[in-house]
Amino acid sequence: MRYPEAVWQAEIELNGDVPWSDEEPLTGVQWNELLPLTGTDVDIIHATHQFAFAPPLRNDTVAVFDEQPDFTRNLKDSPDELSRERIRMAVNAYLDDADAPLKSYNDFVTFSKRGLLEEELDAALSHQPSREWHLSIDDAHRLAPAIARAIHHAEPRSNGRRVGTATYTPQAPLGSSNSGLNADQEVTVVFDDEDTLQTVRVVPDMSQAHVVLGLDAFPTEPLWELNTGVSFDLNSLLKPLERILWRRREKQLRVVQVGSNANHCTHGIGNTEKERALVEEIRDRHGSDFSTAITSKAAEDTLKQMMEDAGVDNPTILTFGEQNSRNVLGDEDVGLVVGCIDMGDGPVLDRLAELGLDAQPIRTSTDCFVCDGNGCRQCNHTGKKRAKGRGFVGPDARVAERICDSVRRDEVKQAISRYGRNPTDSTDSATVYVHTNVIRPSLLLDDDGEGVDIHADTKSNVIAFARDRDETTTKEVWDNTSASRKYTTEVLNELVEKGFATLRKKEPYGTHVYTVSSDTPSDHFVDLG
C-alpha cells in the first residue's frame, strides 16, 4: 500500500471531505503532521483507533490495536453526540425519504418488534438515499439507513434485550470509486426491555486485514470481539511471576493498597473525611514528591481541592478512561489512585445480549427500594434488591463478571501502570497508593495498610486529652472525658500498638503510665503500610 493513497483515502473518510458527515474532523492535526511524508513509502503508520475506519489503513495490512478499542457510540443527549434524539430525527427523515408505511420512529420500533408490516418495511428499508438527501435535509445522518435496518431486524436476547445488526457501506466520494475497496462497517443496536435504545456500536470490517493483533495486559476477549469482529487467540508475552518481577525490578513500581473497601467513586467521593485525611497523610510523608493522582471524572474537582488544601501546588489529576497509554506521570515518584468506577448492571447485560449470552445479577430476597417489589428498570423487573458485590448467576456469569471487571479492575490497573514509566533511567522508581480493593490479584501488592479510621467524638476526646499531657493514666483520662474506663484503656493501648504512644508501669502498684506523642492526630488514623 502506498502511503499517499492511505493519506488521501483516510482524509476523505475522516476529515470532513464527505460533505454530509455531521461529525467533527477526528484527526486533522495528525494528518497535517504526516502530510510532508506523502512523497515516500512507509512501512508502519501509527494512528489512533478511529483510523481503522479508513479502508487503506486496514485492508491488506497487519493491523495492531494497542489496548482494546471501543467503538460504542455515545448516546448522551448532546448536540455533539449521536444522541437518542438525534437518532430519532435521523430515522424519521430516512423513513420519509424511503416512503415507508410508517413515518414515526416510535411506531417504527413498535411495529418492528411485533413483526407488523414486515414485507412493506423490508421493501422500504432497501432504499438508499441520494447524495442530495444528505446535503439538503437537516436531520439526515449517514448512519440512518443502517440503524433503521438494524432496528427492524432486532431479535430477542437475554434479559429482555433485543439486538439487531446491519451493514453500512459509505458512499464513494465524488471522483472516486469504492470498487474493490472494503469500506463496510457493522452497525449494532441494543434495546432494553422498555424499548429504550441503549447501545449503538459501529465497527469497521477487519475481515480483509492480513492479520489483526491486539496488545492488552489483561484482555477481556468478548469485548475485543465485539469491537473488532475478530475471534482472537490469546498468547501471553510474560508469565504471571515474570510480570511481577518486571514491575518490581524493571519499573521499580511499588503498589500499596490502602484499606479494604472498594470505594466506588462513579458519582463522586463517598467519604470526603477519609479521603482528605489520606491526602494529608501522603503529603506529610512524601512532601513535594506527591503532586499527582488519578480518580473518576465525578471526583476530580473534589480531589484536586483536597490536594491544594494539603499544600500541593497545581496538582495533576487524570481521570479513569483518559489515562490509557499516557506517560505524563511516568517520572513521578509518588501517586494516588482514588476509588474505582462501575459501569452498572445495565451495560453488562447489554453486552451479554450482543454476544448472545445469558446471566443475571445476584439478588437478595429484599424488595427493590425503587419499586417496592413491583418490578422496575432498576431491578431488571425482578422486584428484588441487588445483592452486595458485583456477582452474577446464570450460564455465562463468569463472562458477565469479566465484562464488569473490564471497567472496575482494568481502569485501576491502567491508573497504577501510569507510574514508573521512565525506561531511560534505571534508578527511577515510584510508589502508588491505591485507595480501593478492586485490584487484580495478579498484581501481587507490595504492601497494604489498614486505611483511614475517622474517630468518633469520644475517641477524639480521649486522644486529645492524653496528647496534651506529658504523662497520663487511664484513670486520669476517663475522669476527665466521657469515655468509660474500659474504652479509655482500649484507645490508649491502640495508640501504643500504632506507635503513637509508649507505656511504662509505675511502682509500687504497677500503674500504667502512657506518654502520647504530641503529633498524634486526634480525629483520625491513617495506615499507609
Automatic annotation (TrEMBL):
Residues 166-181 have a biased composition (Polar residues). This is Uncharacterized protein. The lineage of its organism: Archaea, Methanobacteriati, Methanobacteriota, Stenosarchaea group, Halobacteria. Residues 154-181 are annotated as: Disordered.
